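Example 9 (inverse folding). The structure is encoded as follows.
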């Protein structure tokens, strides 16, 4: 009875544009795109590579059986939500698309990017690259987004034809209902590219860590039931829809006593620090001696290391970007910077562990998922782990979209073997 109720809710819900704050353009597909296939790109934030095998979600298992799965999806550094969603969306590493972390300072703007600052998140001038939905719209193909990093912003002056400002309180069933309603539109207005986002596994993983099987299984099976409604709805529509399920990163267990205070490292007179857990970006004030500050920070090393930006072992594609900071502090795995207020809250909690990410993508705990199924995708295939930047050129190929002239970091040849032969 519960399954039937959820399915009826999904399939019968009206368009949500009357109840939610939509920014909608009157998109129309160019005639050349009307016979193109469809792509739905679904992000399950914080879904670690091993959750499916551990918890056996039936609808996801069925999709995998009918399509392709990777052994894992390798995030870019840092293994954080905003940089990696935008890497999936653009085919660029963070040092090339500009979202170098969940939060950072931009000296050229004298402003800080924070993921909870709606003004900056919705300002397209912060974002580099050409996201999939921008690429589609530029080519005359209608795109839609029910949440995805960057889709709320006017990147290159363009939004998807249909999009919504992020609101985590929107029920998952309503998100699915809207996607199915988009697919029911007349073909001239029907989006060929749709992005969709769910935060459930990230929320549960942060709260309880990645080893609380009871909590994780409860969250995953509930999410899987919602996804099953989407998969059945797509099947009933009879459209050539290719479904991609990805995640931005995995999750590592971090004991509360592995969080340590960043406050003793702060010196507002000489530099600004933007803390992102495993790493902190240090931006020097004018006339501050970098050698002196580095030596003083190195003297406090123990559970972290301090680097000049040019010597940092990550962001290899572009360490010249001042958004990275003059100095970068990186914790040992699995330790985490925190401020005194948050430390106090965690130590008063009954939960001795947390789940966190942002660490070196070489750690298996940081790896996510990649599943694909549809008319353009082979069935019953398992492929090795690969970097998430390679998803972009695959989707462009399926939708017959050009790759950006400026180039990308993704390589079509990595995922070309999962396509059905013509």
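The amino acid assigned to each position is listed next.
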């Amino acid at each position: 009875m519960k399954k039937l109720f959820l399915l009826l809710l999904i399939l019968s819900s009206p368009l949500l544009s009357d109840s939610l704050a939509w920014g909608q353009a009157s998109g129309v597909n160019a005639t050349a795109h009307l016979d193109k296939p469809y792509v739905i790109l679904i992000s399950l934030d914080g879904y670690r590579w091993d959750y499916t095998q551990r918890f056996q979600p039936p609808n996801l298992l069925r999709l995998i059986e009918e399509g392709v799965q990777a052994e894992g999806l390798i995030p870019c550094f840092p293994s954080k939500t905003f940089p990696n969603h935008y890497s999936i969306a653009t085919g660029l590493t963070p040092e090339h698309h500009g979202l170098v972390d969940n939060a950072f300072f931009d000296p050229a703007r004298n402003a800080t990017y924070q993921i909870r600052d709606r003004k900056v998140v919705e300002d397209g001038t912060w974002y580099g690259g050409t996201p999939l939905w921008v690429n589609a719209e530029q080519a005359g193909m209608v795109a839609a987004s029910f949440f995805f990093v960057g889709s709320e912003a006017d990147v290159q002056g363009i939004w998807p034809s249909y999009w919504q400002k992020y609101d985590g309180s929107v029920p998952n069933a309503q998100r699915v209902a809207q996607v199915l309603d988009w697919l029911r539109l007349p073909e001239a207005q029907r989006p060929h590219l749709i992005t969709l986002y769910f935060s459930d596994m990230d929320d549960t993983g942060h709260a309880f860590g990645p080893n609380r099987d009871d909590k994780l299984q409860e969250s995953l099976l509930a999410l899987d039931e919602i996804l099953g409604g989407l998969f059945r709805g797509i099947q009933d529509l009879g459209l050539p829809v290719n479904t991609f399920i990805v995640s931005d990163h995995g999750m590592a267990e971090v004991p509360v006593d592995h969080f340590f205070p960043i406050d003793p490292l702060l010196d507002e007179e000489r530099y600004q620090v933007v803390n992102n857990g495993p790493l902190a970006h240090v931006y020097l004030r004018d006339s501050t001696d970098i050698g002196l500050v580095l030596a003083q920070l190195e003297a406090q090393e123990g559970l972290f290391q301090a680097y000049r930006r040019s010597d940092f072992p990550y962001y290899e594609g572009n360490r010249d970007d001042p958004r990275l900071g003059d100095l970068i502090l990186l914790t040992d795995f699995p330790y985490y910077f925190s401020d005194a207020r948050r430390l106090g809250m965690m130590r008063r909690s009954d939960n001795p562990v947390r789940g966190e990410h942002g660490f070196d993508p070489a750690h298996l705990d940081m790896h996510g998922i990649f599943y694909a199924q549809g008319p353009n995708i082979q069935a019953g295939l398992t492929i090795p782990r690969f970097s998430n930047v390679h998803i972009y050129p695959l989707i462009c190929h399926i939708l017959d979209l050009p790759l950006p002239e400026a180039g990308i970091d993704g390589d079509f040849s990595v995922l070309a073997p999962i396509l059905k032969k013509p």
